[in-house]
User: Which sequence fits this backbone?
């Protein structure tokens, strides 16, 4: 299955690139648009329900995330390349081992993604294919994807279908001196006396289907559905679970998870300056998680260049059937986790920011777009986080026509 | 599950009957960058973090798996 997907992705990829660069000699050269986006994300989190220590203990976490995205549009084809590193300072990761330091363990997640999309104007089709991958000391993942978008004749409706897969390997050792290869799963220090599972791979298949419809001059509606299936090792090998008998084990979850999610987005332009974006979504899976969310974002255009953003999101989740807090699992339970990400909670997310889009009538601006966003996230079990994102988009290469 | 199927069917019918025709000069609002359904890179990062800290994955989300629960 995996080989077929990779081969199909590569085949589609090669067909597109051949079409994109195989221009006829008598064809007029088409303008090239290139853009580079530099992005920095900073994430700070604190809480007291770490799954590493069985549902108690620090969740203090810092993520420093620089990344770069390059987009190159030539004719009807668009190349997209993204790469970045998340440098992670996690206090809970210290607690995997018995040697607990006050300083946090530093880890890094490095990722790349390349995507090519080609537009066929006569049929209003866009077909895209891509390949991504990420690596950490205890994780390796690669992700082929394909997609197709069909526009209506009047250009007011789009139907899109995306199929994305992830193939993950949870073994540790690739980035560790002396090993530099996948060696083993990492269990909590005191639980390394045996192998808790014979699996170390995880496969995820996500099918996204969406319809976007322009309702009138000022309203756009989008409906999106996700059907996802995950197989393999779905638990995290260094998550502890304490039973009510005081015995201890590694988290255990079923080997298959089926997910279904439905989102509705409604964007509305009110007056000459306000854009109201509303999103509602519902989610369910066979782990017993049921979730719903409402989000509202207002964008206010102060002038042609500057837009101010503000948003609010409410989220509620029912616990997984396999979740219980610290020392509340029965020893007879078939599956068990004390990961509070799978518990029952409500969250509130508040945020704001701005977008600055320089506009010059005839000249090429030095900057296409600057975005700054900040969010504060509150979870009913006490977890709090702050996220700051700064992005700057710059034109590169040949100058574009205004 | 039946409720979801009904909702999808009703919405599809709604979309089909709500077809409108807009001339190019009438599309200035719907073509505004802020009116697009896709999210920028900064918003995608927030979605990514939330999909880890919650157990659900919204449709159209970029994240479905691929590492870094970050604990």
Assistant:
């Amino acid at each position: 299955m995996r080989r077929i997907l990779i081969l199909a992705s590569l085949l589609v990829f090669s067909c597109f690139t051949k079409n994109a660069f195989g221009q006829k000699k008598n064809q007029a050269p088409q303008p090239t648009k290139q853009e580079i986006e530099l992005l920095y994300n900073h994430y700070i989190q604190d809480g007291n329900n770490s799954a590493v220590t069985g549902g108690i203990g620090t969740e203090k976490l810092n993520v420093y995330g620089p990344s770069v995205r390059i987009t190159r549009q030539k004719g009807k084809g668009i190349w997209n390349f993204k790469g970045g590193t998340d440098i992670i300072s996690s206090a809970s990761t210290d607690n995997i081992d018995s040697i607990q330091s006050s300083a946090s363990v530093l880890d890094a997640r490095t990722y790349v993604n390349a995507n090519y999309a080609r537009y066929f104007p006569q049929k209003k089709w866009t077909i895209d294919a891509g390949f991504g991958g990420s690596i950490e000391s205890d994780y390796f993942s690669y992700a082929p994807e394909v997609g197709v978008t069909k526009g209506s004749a009047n250009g007011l409706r789009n139907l899109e279908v995306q199929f994305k897969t992830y193939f993950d390997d949870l073994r540790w050792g690739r980035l560790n001196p002396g090993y530099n290869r996948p060696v083993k799963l990492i269990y909590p220090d005191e639980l390394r006396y045996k192998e808790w599972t014979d699996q170390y791979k995880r496969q995820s298949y996500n099918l996204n289907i969406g319809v976007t419809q322009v309702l009138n001059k000022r309203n756009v509606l989008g409906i999106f559905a996700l059907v996802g299936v995950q197989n393999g090792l779905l638990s995290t090998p260094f998550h502890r679970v304490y039973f009510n008998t005081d015995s201890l084990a590694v988290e255990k979850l079923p080997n298959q998870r089926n997910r279904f999610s439905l989102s509705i987005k409604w964007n509305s332009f009110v007056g000459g300056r306000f854009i109201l974006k509303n999103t509602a979504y519902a989610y369910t899976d066979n782990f017993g998680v049921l979730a719903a969310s409402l989000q509202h974002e207002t964008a206010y255009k102060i002038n042609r260049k500057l837009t101010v953003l503000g948003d609010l999101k409410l989220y509620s989740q029912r616990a997984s059937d396999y979740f219980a807090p610290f020392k509340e699992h029965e020893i007879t339970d078939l599956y068990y986790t004390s990961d509070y990400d799978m518990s029952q909670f409500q969250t509130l997310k508040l945020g704001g920011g701005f977008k600055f889009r320089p506009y010059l009538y005839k000249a090429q601006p030095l900057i296409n777009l600057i975005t700054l966003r900040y969010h504060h996230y509150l979870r009913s079990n006490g977890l709090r986080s702050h996220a700051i994102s700064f992005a700057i988009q710059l034109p590169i290469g040949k100058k574009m026509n205004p | 599950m039946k409720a979801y199927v009904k909702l999808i069917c009703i919405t599809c019918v709604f979309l089909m009957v709500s077809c409108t025709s807009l001339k190019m000069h009438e599309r200035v609002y719907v073509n505004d960058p802020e009116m697009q359904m896709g999210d920028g890179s900064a918003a995608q990062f927030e979605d990514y973090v939330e999909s880890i800290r919650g157990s659900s994955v919204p449709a159209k989300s970029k994240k479905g798996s691929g590492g870094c629960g970050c604990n």
Q: What stands out?
A: Chain B touches chain A through 48 residues (CB under 8 Å). The radius of gyration of chain B is 17 Å. The first helix of chain B runs from residue 2 to 17.
